[in-house]
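Query form — protein Bestrophin homolog

QUESTION: What is the three-dimensional structure of this chain?
INPUT:
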Amino acid sequence: MTVTYTADVSSRKFISNFLRLLFRWRGSIYKLMWVDLIVFVTIYAILAFIYRVCLNNSLRYGFEYAVMYCNSQLNLIPLSFVMGYFVAIVMTRWWAQYTTIPWPDSIATLISCSVHGFDDRARAMRRTIMRYVCLCQTIVFTMISPSVKKRFPTYNQIIEAGLLQENEKQIIETLDLAFPHYPKHWMPIVWAASIVMRARRENKIRDDYAVKTIIDELNRFRGLCGFLLYYDWVSVPLVYTQVVTLATYTFFLCSIIGSQWIDNPQSPTASNLVVKYFPILSILRFFFYMGWLKVAESLINPFGEDDDDFEVNWMIDRNLTVSYLIVDEMHQEHPELLKDQYWDEVFPNELPYIDESKRTAPPVHSTAKLIPSLDNKLGFYMPQSSPSLLTQNTSSQVDMTTSLQQLREILKRQNESEDKQSSTSMNLEELIEQRHREKRERLRHRFLNMNKPSSTGRGYVVTVLRPPTPRTSQHSRIEEENEEEEEQGEEDQIKEPDSDAANKKPDKYE
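ANSWER: The C-alpha cells for Bestrophin homolog are given below.
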C-alpha cells in the first residue's frame, strides 16, 4: 500500500518536515537496504583486519598498490549519470502506470442517466453492465498483480466475490480451451456492449447518441486495461537494467578496496584517523548510491507487494461498491430543488471566513501598478536632440522649453477628451446593464413568491422551484418577446441623442 505523508508536509514549520520523515520505517530507505549496508560494512572490516593483522610485508605492498589503484580509477565509472537517467525513466513509467488505471465512475454515471426504468429488468441491466466493467478490471489485475492473483487464484474465488456468475464462468473456460494463448479480459466489455444494445431495442435507452457515448466509454475502459497489460509485457529494456546493476555493484566493490586505510606515506589518508577506524564518508556514499538503486527496484513494478506499490485490492472493492451505488441507489435521485442563499444577489460578493484574518486579497497582475509617466509620452512624441547642440546654443534651450509646454497642453486636452468619451460610453453601458437587471427582476418575480415583508425585516421565504406547465411557458415566452421589443425601443431612444457625439471627431483630430 502506498505510504502517504502529504499531511505532514502540507505547510512549512520551524523544524523541517522532511527531517521528521527521516524517522519513519515503513516505506523507508532503511528498510530497503539495511541488509546491503551490513554486508558492505562487514566486508570492509574483514579486509581491514586482514591487512593490519594477517599479511606480511610483500602482501601488504601488493594490497597497498591495489588500494591506491582502485582509489585513483574509481571515478571512471559514470555511476551518477547512469543511475540518474535510469531512475528518471522508472519514475516516469511508475506514474504513467498509475494514470493508466481506469475508473468506472464515468461509465456508471452514463448508465444511471441513460438506462431508464425502475423495474427489475432495467435495474438488472444497469447493475450487470457495471459488474462486467469491474470484472474486466479484476481479470486484468489478476494477470499483472501478485497480490490480486493470491486473492483470486481461480474463477471460483471471483464467483464468491460476486463479480462472476457460474454460466459466465463456463463460457470463459470454454473459450480458454479453444483459444488458450490469448487473454479474455475483453469478454465482459463485449457482454456489457450487448446489454447496452438490448436496452436500446427495448427503449430503456431513448436515443442513439447515449448509446454511442456509452460504447465509447466502454471502449476507452477496455483500452486502458489493455495498456496495463502492455506495461506488464514490455518492461524497461533488460540490457539497461543489467548495465545499471553491474555499474552499481562494481563501483562499490572497488570502493571497498579503494577506501581502505593503508600505512603508506604516498597515501593521502595515511595520517587520517577517521578513515583508519571508521570510514564515514565511504559508508554515506554507499548509502546514497545503493539507496538510489533500491528506489528503482521498488518502483519498476508498482503492482507488486512492496510498501509503495499500488493498493489494487482496495481499488477492486471500491469500484464495485461505487458502481452499484451510482447505478442503483442513486438512480434518478437528487436533493429537493431549493433557492440558494445568494438567490437575491445572483452571485456572492465574498464568501465567509471563520477567521477573517485569513482572507487573502485577489491576485494583482504584474502591470497593475505600472502608470506611464508624462516624460515617457514626451520621449515618444519628440525626436531626440543632440546634447552638444543644446549646450552650445542658449536660444535653442528656450525654444525647447516652450515646445515642451505646448506639448503638455496638447496632451492634457487629449486626455480630457478621452476621459469625456469614456465616461459617456460607460454611462450608456451602465444604463443598458440596469435595463437588463430590471428585466431579470421582473422575470424572477413572475413565477416565484418573492414578496419580502417590509416591516419585519425577515428574508425571502424559501420555496421549492416547480417546473412550469406548457401553458405558463407559452405565456411567459409571449411576455418576454413583448418586453424585448420594448427594451429595444428604449435602447434606440437612448442611442439617438448620442449619435451626433459618436459621429463627431475628437478634438485631437481637429
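ADDITIONAL NOTE: Residues 378-394, 449-457, 459-465, 497-510 have pLDDT under 50 and may be disordered.
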